[in-house]
Amino acid sequence: xxxxxxxxxxxxxxxxxxxxxxxxxxxxxxxxxxxxxxxxxxxxxxxxxxxxxxxxxxxxxxxxxxxxxxxxxxxxxxxxxxxxxxxxxxxxxxxxxxxxxxxxxxxxxxxxxxxxxxxxxxxxxxxxxxxxxxxxxxxxxxxxxxxxxxxxxxxxxxxxxxxxxxxxxxxxxxxxxxxxxxxxxxxxxxxxxxxxxxxxxxxxxxxxxxxxxxxxxxxxxxxxxxxxxxxxxxxxxxxxxxxxxxxxxxxxxxxxxxxxxxxxxxxxxxxxxxxxxxxxxxxxxxxxxxxxxxxxxxxxxxxxxxxxxxxxxxxxxxxxxxxxxxxxxxxxxxxxxxxxxxxxxxxxxxxxxxxxxxxxxxxxxxxxxxxxxxxxxxxxxxxxxxxxxxxxxxxxxxxxxxxxxxxxxxxxxxxxxxxxxxxxxxxxxxxxxxxxxxxxxxxxxxxxxxxxxxxxxxxxxxxxxxxxxxxxxxxxxxxxxxxxxxxxxxxxxxxxxxxxxxxxxxxxxxxxxxxxxxxxxxxxxxxxxxxxxxxxxxxxxxxxxx
Length: 546
Description:
Helix content is about 30%, strand content about 20%. The chain is an alpha/beta fold and about 550 residues long. Strands 1, 2, 3, 4, 5, 19, 20 and 21 form an eight-stranded mixed sheet that branches. Helix 17 (about 450-460) crosses helix 18 (about 475-490). The radius of gyration is 23 Å and the shape is globular. The two termini are about 25 Å apart.
């Protein structure tokens, strides 16, 4: 049935910001919705006259906006983490609290079962000291333990976990990763990059992971809980940035059982690229609820985990971070994916990593200039003028962290320095170059609330009140667009998401106040009152269910 043939209902609100392009209505008080799409936006009186029999739904006071699109958020990882222990700094503000929380979580598990904990922040919880295997051995001696860092690129395990993984002091570093060691060369329990992925991340592991995965019912419950949190922040679409076969099966199961509450664009991890290429599957395969968004790969490590690959070392060290792929491997992958008409979505944080990725994409474009797929740079954190110019020339879409200045900024100054931080998360410079930029939280590596990211981009102010790279500030309208048309474009969906305009999906968020009229420092305090997906209520602040 065509949209024009579907029954129309009118949604009215005190103020609706359509985020439509210049020349279209910008602020209205009503939407006409047919099926799951917007049929018209305009004055309520005009829409009443145009659709006289349409029922009306009052969204109340406040301001409605297009539902937030997060281009890079780890939905299925959040579901898996929900099954384990949360050791984020919000709940473990000290080493003693961390130990107590791990012991308490272990006490709820069957004998010998793995204890998996996530979102450990060594800066805010243990004062910059990284806990090691001996700490975990003292706290939880009777079972294998994995504590993953908030950046998700390294973690710490105890002796039982090392034994379960078959790792000894004589074990070599895996390609693309490393095993932490103490001054005597013995394993200290810290696993970096591929060493961690092989242990616990099935989408990236090069063999069956050692940590047993949760069951499907547990994961679906975790997905429900994570989705509810994201809906409460107004997120209606997610780019799930690390999807392998297990994660795809989970998303498909949720879709089949009507438990997929956000629209999901899956970035399938690079070990599975050849299967998609052989099957002839293209970007956009799927529907408006679950679709393929590209191939996720990695060049380097993490910003907050201090493993990204830099041209200049971290301050006070000779450490340049670490690449996790060779130039030959990256060039080959880029050419294969590009030639197949699939979108690349490659994690590259440091300037050396980004430059290497640009080399690979330039090579692929030279070999196959007939293919015009817009590729993505995930995070794209440390840039300079040459990098920005190359990104613009290639028509790439960077997906920088939106909230990192506020969330991690205080902890990053000593490692990167203020000058370099002024070139990081460079939303202003990228936008000024005419580049499409997408909004991203990278949750669980940063807060998932889009308004937190918007505030960080607008203020460039840390939690301690320090301004880092004030010249990179952008306007509220530009920051909101990151989580609208920018993020939609990163998934090739800018024709249906990011605006409340005719033909677009009727996904919207209702805020208690108009963000265009709220002081920048208060943007993240605006309450979300309702979230709608496809013209239907999905979450409301005054109800536990919708």
